[in-house]
Amino acid sequence: MPQFAIPLAAIFGFLAVALGAFGAHGLKSQLTPAMLEVYQTGVQYHFFHALALLLLGVLLRQGMNHSGLTAAAWLFSIGIVIFSGSLYALAITEIKILGAITPIGGLLFLAGWLCLAYGSWKAA
């Protein structure tokens, strides 16, 4: 993951901006206000964690190698896909069961932040 963290963060950042613009312009008239809010929540967490992944990539490239940091990068990446992806799908399809998947992504984000704390503490 160390060599892939920054490129992956860039791809996730690009997708967050593209999906945010698509939601604001392409979906605004297609979604109910409640579903547009769900979609925007997905975009917001997507972007926050793309930035966190970018930070992790910088730390890893500067030699701050610890398994906790690598784990955090994986957890943020998978969390984006599950958390934000489920919210995007829920907003567009209104299939309510997709909302049951979202907390799994949230737990991955939380675990990622704990791994970041632990890994940065141990690597310092």
Automatic annotation (TrEMBL):
Main location: membrane
Topology within the bilayer: Multi-pass membrane protein
Keyword rRNA-binding recorded: no
GO CC list: plasma membrane
Keywords assigned: Membrane, Transmembrane, Transmembrane helix
Protein location: Membrane
Transmembrane feature ranges: 42-60, 72-91, 97-119
Recorded superkingdom: Bacteria
Record carries keyword Transmembrane: yes
Pfam family, one: DUF423
Stated family: Belongs to the UPF0382 family.
Name the UniProt record assigns to this protein: DUF423 domain-containing protein
UniProt organism field: Spongiibacter pelagi
